[in-house]
Specification:
This protein is an alpha+beta fold. The chain has 2 domains: about 120 residues, OB fold (Dihydrolipoamide Acetyltransferase, E2P) (Beta Barrel); about 180 residues, Hypothetical protein af1432 (Orthogonal Bundle). The protein is about 40% helix and about 20% strand. It has 13 helices and 9 strands. A 5-stranded mixed β-barrel has the order 2-3-4-7-6. The protein has a two-stranded antiparallel sheet with strand order 8-9. The longest helix is centred in the C-terminal third of the chain and has 25 residues. It starts with 5 loop residues before the first strand and ends with a helix.
């Protein structure tokens, strides 16, 4: 780790082809696989405060344990320290290569560092927005609702204690808002956009229940409290893998609604948002949005996902380029667009 200047994940992702790098972060994912010749390799994801990077560790890479000045060679196929590396801090050296017209990050040296000296929680990425600001906005949205929605939301979040987890939880393990506070940040973004859409359509004469839109936006990813965990990086739970957050969230919401004696018609309307918010069966929703409120929340959810991906990709784009490489998640290349002005510029600098 002393040979090269240590880079952050963000700096590493800005490197060009054939660049060498050294970084330090917490391993959020490590999966052993085999190539066509039956040789082992590993898919790895590493996170620090600036972001997450995915890469490959090939079978000829070196694995070492560092303890002070002591350096011990490890067998990645046998040593427990390697097998249990997820959630631990590691140092990595590697090189940027090109694969299918995309940058790929190959790690050729892996260091298991002293976890007391480099605790994993110090490298976990967090929402760029303050806890205080997000909580204030959340409470304002709840307080802006009429009864019985306001009382129900206050009860389940603040009296039942869901808030303690909800404010810290990730929205995913990769792709979007995959960090501490990501679920709250994403839910607020969806609610902000959905409420603006709802009020706009009310002005156009469309009968939209804005309170249901607020509740549906804040609760649409409720199931992620059971689908993911922080250890200390975002990880998928067994229920998250075999049931998924949509079903988990609907079941939990309807149980809470019944327990609270919440109005059945509104409970069904909000529950419909939870099961339809992905917008299509292809993307995991068992039913399609069938109400004005569900269509609005689904559209806001998809837009927030796409804009998050756009923002992350543009942030990594070299200043001399205006268009990204092909982004498989969105099935397109992304354009930086015309130079922003006013509020757009300020928001870009903040984010």
């Amino acid at each position: 780790m002393k040979e090269k200047k240590r880079l952050t994940v963000e700096e590493t992702r800005r490197l060009s082809k054939d660049s060498a790098f050294s970084l330090l972060g917490v391993v959020s994912r490590l999966v052993r696989k085999k190539d066509r010749n039956d040789n082992p390799f590993w898919d790895i994801s590493v996170m620090d405060g600036t972001g997450q990077i995915d890469g490959k560790i090939w079978g000829n890479s070196e694995w070492w344990r560092l303890r002070g000045e002591e350096r011990t060679r490890l067998d990645p196929l046998a040593d427990d320290e390697v097998l249990n590396l997820e959630g631990c801090t590691a140092g990595l050296q590697g090189k940027v290569v090109e694969f299918r017209d995309q940058n790929q990050y190959n790690f050729n040296v892996v260091y298991l560092v002293d976890q007391d000296k480099y605790p994993a929680h110090g490298f976990v990425r967090r929402s760029p927005f303050s806890d205080e600001a997000m909580e204030a906005e959340f409470r304002s949205l709840v307080e802006g609702c009429g009864e019985p929605v306001r009382g129900f939301l206050e009860r389940i979040f603040f009296e039942r204690g869901i808030w303690r987890e909800f404010r810290a939880w990730p929205a995913a393990v990769s792709v979007h808002h995959a960090y501490v506070g990501g679920l709250l940040e994403h839910s607020l973004s969806v609610a902000r956009a959905a409420v603006a859409l709802a009020r706009g359509y009310v002005e156009s004469g469309v009968p939209v229940d804005v309170d249901v839109v607020v509740a549906g936006s804040l609760l649409h990813d409720l199931g992620k409290l059971e689908s993911y965990r922080l250890s200390p990086t975002p990880q998928v739970t067994l229920p998250g893998n075999v049931v998924d957050h949509i079903v988990l969230g609907y079941h939990r919401f309807m149980s809470l609604a019944e327990e609270a004696g919440f109005d059945r018609d509104r409970a069904l309307a909000i529950g419909h948002i939870l099961v339809s918010h992905h917008g299509s069966r292809e993307f995991g929703s068992p039913v399609l949005p069938a109400t004005a409120e569900a269509m609005i929340v689904s559209a806001a959810d998809e837009l927030d996902f796409k804009l998050y991906c756009w923002r992350e990709q543009i942030a990594q784009l070299d200043a001399a380029r205006d268009v990204t490489d092909f982004v498989p998640t969105l099935q397109r290349r992304l354009w930086r667009g015309a130079p922003p002005a006013g509020n757009a510029k300020a928001f870009t600098e903040q984010g």
